[in-house]
Amino acid sequence: MEEARDADVLGRAKKIKMIILDVDGVLTDGGVHIGEEGELFKTFNIKDGMGIALWQRAGFRTAIITGRRSKMLEKRAEELHITEFRQGCLDKRDAYKEIKEKYSLKDEEIAYIGDDLIDLPVMIQVGFAAAPADAVSDVRERAHFVTEAYGGRGAVREVLEFILKSQNLWKDIVNTFLS
């Protein structure tokens, strides 16, 4: 039974052309730090950023759909050359549909990484749903792939490497750094 599940997950990963990310709890550890002047801070993981850069270098697209609004996210998205992002989406289905139609993609060609209940409506639509190890149990139960890493601690990188390996692209990526 486990082998069939593994084969299904691998088959799903092979079809992916775009990844859509949640932010808090996925790209960050979910913490929001507040400074003395009321300014907000979030921590983004550099390995996740490198994973996104490698993913895009391989010719794939990245998008973000998040429930919160954040100037920090805008800055991070700009650094990572992610132009497709939607903020303030308490119901993420409309943003998902809009992105899917804009790029003429099918559900099975899209992966989504989410960590909380707000992510479930999109996770059950996509071809490859992933969750960080510390996602809420209802999300982990419905994910096709659950990372060993926590959100904001390399979970995005882990998912992207898995997909790239499933598509037999990872060795070529590594070799670009060795030559």
TrEMBL record:
<dbReference type="GO" id="GO:0016788">
    <property type="term" value="F:hydrolase activity, acting on ester bonds"/>
</dbReference>
<dbReference type="GO" id="GO:0008781">
    <property type="term" value="F:N-acylneuraminate cytidylyltransferase activity"/>
</dbReference>
<feature type="binding site">
    <location>
        <position position="115"/>
    </location>
    <ligand>
        <name>Mg(2+)</name>
    </ligand>
</feature>
<feature type="binding site">
    <location>
        <position position="24"/>
    </location>
    <ligand>
        <name>substrate</name>
    </ligand>
</feature>
<dbReference type="InterPro" id="IPR023214">
    <property type="entry name" value="HAD_sf"/>
</dbReference>
<dbReference type="InterPro" id="IPR036412">
    <property type="entry name" value="HAD-like_sf"/>
</dbReference>
<comment type="similarity">
    <text>Belongs to the KdsC family.</text>
</comment>
<keyword id="KW-0460">Magnesium</keyword>
<dbReference type="InterPro" id="IPR010023">
    <property type="entry name" value="KdsC_fam"/>
</dbReference>
<keyword id="KW-0378">Hydrolase</keyword>
<dbReference type="InterPro" id="IPR050793">
    <property type="entry name" value="CMP-NeuNAc_synthase"/>
</dbReference>
<protein>
    <submittedName>
        <fullName>3-deoxy-D-manno-octulosonate 8-phosphate phosphatase (KDO 8-P phosphatase)</fullName>
    </submittedName>
</protein>
<keyword id="KW-0479">Metal-binding</keyword>
<dbReference type="Pfam" id="PF00702">
    <property type="entry name" value="Hydrolase"/>
</dbReference>
<comment type="subunit">
    <text>Homotetramer.</text>
</comment>
<dbReference type="InterPro" id="IPR006549">
    <property type="entry name" value="HAD-SF_hydro_IIIA"/>
</dbReference>
<dbReference type="GO" id="GO:0046872">
    <property type="term" value="F:metal ion binding"/>
</dbReference>
<feature type="binding site">
    <location>
        <position position="22"/>
    </location>
    <ligand>
        <name>Mg(2+)</name>
    </ligand>
</feature>
